């Protein structure tokens, strides 16, 4: 499960600014544009606004033969509550001092700073990650550790949320991080709506270890895990001992645990916790069901257990989450 400690209030200023530079990483930049710049009238009037800050003069080249003219320069960073660094020219490419100063000032006034993939090296150069955890593409993890030993590099997650500084793993993990921010700001339903338009899962379990070179489960084993996972989702409140799951999948316990981790990136217990938390959040947002009943329906058994996991994963309580994201609070 990705690191998700925060349930911060949504920003009063909805302006999101993406950094553009000569040699721009087109895919990572496109992720920011797709999620934060695309008009979404169904989301209401307090949805994000978007601008591009160019840190190099004039027309900038992006990968793939694209050229970009930005809305403004580094001064736009000073107007944003959310700043995104979509990749970077290289792990050892120098970061302009003007950008470093702009990011530091934004961080000091409480703006959220996000990096996608190699953009983490820009945040590191600005000193925003000292003493914090961070992630990046698995190919860059060792280099980041070598260059910045004061950063705790976590190589096996899709993203890390350190409050106002957030980092993602390689390329497509930027989608996961940006959806996480939408979820933080507007709730699960809004993030699910955005994910549906993107035709991607609203939340991926596991980490980028799933995508490092490894063996692929045999087709017959994948065909056994798929129906089992569907069954667990359909009856999420049931108990699922590993021995029972392995028997249902027609595997030994050892083989089942290995193949389940290869398919999902996590253990069955962590997968179940993630699914149960997702179910509980949906019920808190969309129903007036009592907390005790939600705990039972989502598979936690008791409200105290639900509260424990909510505090541990989201740094909030079910009651506070419902007050912020529930249908009644939104209509009000």
UniProtKB/TrEMBL annotation:
Transmembrane segments: none annotated. Residues 226-324 form the HTH araC/xylS-type domain. Signal peptide: none annotated. This is Transcriptional regulator FtrA. InterPro entries: Class_I_gatase-like (IPR029062), DJ-1/PfpI (IPR002818), Homeodomain-like_sf (IPR009057), HTH_AraC (IPR018060), HTH_AraC-typ_CS (IPR018062), INH-QAR (IPR052158). Keywords: DNA-binding, Transcription, Transcription regulation. NCBIfam families: PRK09393.1. Pfam families: DJ-1_PfpI, HTH_18.
């Amino acid at each position: 499960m990705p690191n998700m400690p925060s349930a911060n209030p949504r920003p009063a200023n909805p302006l999101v600014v993406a950094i553009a530079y000569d040699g721009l990483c087109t895919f990572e930049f496109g992720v920011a544009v797709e999620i934060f710049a695309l008009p979404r009238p169904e989301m209401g009037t307090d949805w994000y606004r978007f601008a591009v800050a160019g840190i190099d003069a004039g027309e900038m080249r992006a990968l793939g033969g694209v050229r970009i003219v930005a809305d403004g320069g580094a001064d736009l960073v000073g107007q944003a509550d959310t700043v995104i660094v979509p990749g970077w020219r290289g792990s050892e490419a120098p970061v302009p001092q003007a950008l470093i100063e702009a990011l530091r000032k934004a961080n000091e006034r409480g703006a959220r700073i996000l990096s996608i993939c190699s953009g983490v090296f820009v945040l590191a150069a600005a000193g925003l990650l000292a003493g914090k955890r961070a992630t990046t593409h698995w190919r860059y993890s060792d280099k980041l550790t070598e260059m910045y030993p004061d950063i705790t590099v976590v190589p096996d997650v899709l993203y890390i949320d350190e409050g106002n500084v957030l980092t993602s793993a390689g390329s497509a993990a930027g989608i996961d991080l940006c959806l996480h921010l939408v979820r933080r700001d507007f709730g699960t339903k809004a993030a699910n709506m955005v994910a549906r338009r993107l035709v991607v899962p609203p939340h991926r379990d596991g980490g980028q270890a799933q995508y490092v070179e490894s063996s692929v489960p045999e087709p017959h084993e994948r065909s056994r895990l798929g129906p089992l996972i569907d069954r667990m989702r359909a009856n999420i409140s049931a108990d699922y001992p590993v021995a029972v799951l392995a028997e249902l999948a027609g595997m030994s316990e050892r083989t089942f645990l290995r193949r389940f981790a290869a398919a999902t990136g996590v253990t069955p217990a962590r997968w179940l916790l993630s699914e149960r938390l997702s179910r509980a959040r949906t019920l808190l947002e969309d129903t007036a069901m009592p907390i005790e009943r939600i705990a039972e329906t989502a598979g936690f058994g008791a409200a105290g257990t639900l509260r424990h996991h909510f505090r541990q994963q989201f740094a909030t309580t079910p009651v506070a989450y419902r007050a912020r994201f529930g249908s009644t609070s939104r209509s009000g």
